[in-house]
Write a structure and sequence with these properties.
The structure is a single chain. By secondary structure, the chain is α/β, with parallel strands linked by helices. Helices cover 31% and strands 23% of the residues. Helix 5 packs across helix 7 (120-130). The protein is globular. Pfam families: Ala_racemase_N. It comes from Amycolatopsis silviterrae. Residues 22-193 form the Alanine racemase N-terminal domain.
Length: 395
């Protein structure tokens, strides 16, 4: 079910755009679908795809969602000290000395937060920041989950240098032997499956992507199982994390995986429209006002150049959503101060009318707005700050 532009307009009639909303009915329906797809395996909520404490707390309040996965150590310590969660994994290694010192100084944060490592150099960095003799720091070892079918061919994100089970065991032994560190988890993120839609392109392209993902998932399942077994001979792991919104089913089917990471599926940005096995409801939208009518079939909106990170191209630009039948101009696109739209619906737009758009990525919209208006039906239920609205920016 999609709320009409009229419903969103009515809910926010007393607010001036640009503004951003989260449709709570869609958010909750997407949460239900994530849990259905996980088939009983717990989901760790990925904060970078939400970046709003109230929405993170809303997700964590539901059975089946357990713990946070943060993208920054400073962010993780902030959540730990606020009590958002007592189980937080930082998905990326840190070089933030100040955040490391805050972690070491807080018993509450040390008990809650697990940092990511993939080499002894990361341990060296922690020792350099804290000095020898520091309290035990919880660490998670990251296994590279890319697909390498042939020598020199790398399909997936560039993350950990630890690829083979023997490499994982070797690093695990070094961690366990190092004073001041406790190995408690393993992680592997299969971005070529979780973050790449298999129904986003044309027929041949989709078939190639689907074939690649099936082959990659089968290879990773064997390799991850062997790596986890090898590491468990060295350390008593509390968790093995894997996956993302796009790979919940395949990742969750692996017996060695104890939890799945997901975040974008709550808000459903446009990059998650192109999957064949799930269709989330758009939950995060932003409204821009019409400020010019340069032609009968063109309406120019104020602001709107919210370009998503990643490889540049059409997939990273915002998409007009409501009223239906609008599109960006190829020559001008979404601009810093103005965004023209065209299409049949543009003929009926007047100055001051709103156009609702969707961002390409889930969490990055929160970097543009200080608050989200949480909408249910044609009413704003409450207004909550984003990270930036709380004065937080974690890079």
């Amino acid at each position: 079910m999609t709320t009409s532009a009229h419903g969103y307009d009515l809910a926010t009639k007393d607010l001036d755009p640009p503004l951003a909303i989260v449709d709570l009915d869609a958010f909750d329906a997407n949460a239900d679908d994530l849990l259905r797809r996980a088939a009983g395996k717990p989901i760790r909520v990925v904060s970078k795809s939400v970046r709003c404490r109230a929405l993170l707390e809303r997700a964590l309040a539901r059975d089946g969602f357990e713990g946070l996965m943060c993208y920054s150590l400073a962010e993780a310590v902030w959540h730990a000290e606020l009590g958002t969660s007592d189980d937080i994994v930082v998905a990326y290694p840190t070089a933030d000395h100040e955040a490391l010192r805050r972690l070491a100084a807080s018993e509450r944060a040390r008990a809650a937060v697990t940092i990511m490592v993939d080499s002894t150099e990361h341990l060296d960095l922690v020792d350099a920041a804290l000095g020898h003799g520091h309290p035990d720091i919880r660490v998670c070892l990251e296994l590279d989950a890319s697909w390498r079918p042939l020598p020199g061919v790398h399909v997936g994100t560039r993350r950990s240098p630890v690829f083979k089970p023997g490499q994982a065991a070797a690093v695990a032994r070094q961690i366990v032997a190092r004073p001041g560190f406790r190995l408690v988890g393993m992680m592997a993120y299969e971005g070529q499956i979780a973050g790449l839609g298999d129904a986003a392109g044309r027929g041949v392209q989709n078939r190639v992507i689907g074939w690649m993902q099936r082959r990659s998932a089968a290879e990773l399942a064997r390799r991850r199982s062997a790596a986890v077994r090898a590491v468990r001979e060295v350390a008593d792991l509390e968790f093995v994390n894997g996956g993302g919104t796009g790979s919940i089913e395949t990742t969750g089917a692996e017996n060695v995986v104890t939890e799945i990471a997901a975040g974008s599926g709550f808000l459903a940005p446009t990059l998650f429209d192109g999957y064949s096995h799930f269709q989330p409801r758009p939950a995060a939208l932003f409204a821009l006002p019409v400020v010019r009518r340069p032609a009968k079939n063109v309406a120019t909106l104020f602001s709107g150049g919210y370009i998503a990170s990643g490889p540049t191209g059409p997939s990273r630009v915002p998409s007009p959503y409501l009223p239906e039948g609008l599109r960006l101009l190829g020559f001008e696109g979404a601009g810093e101060v103005q965004t023209p739209v065209t299409g049949e619906a543009a003929r009926t737009l007047r100055l001051g009318d709103r156009v609702w758009l969707r961002h390409a990525k889930a969490g990055e919209l929160a970097e543009r707005f200080l608050q989200y208006h949480l909408v249910r039906g044609s009413q704003v239920e409450r207004t909550v700050p984003t990270y930036r609205g709380e004065g937080q920016s974690f890079g």
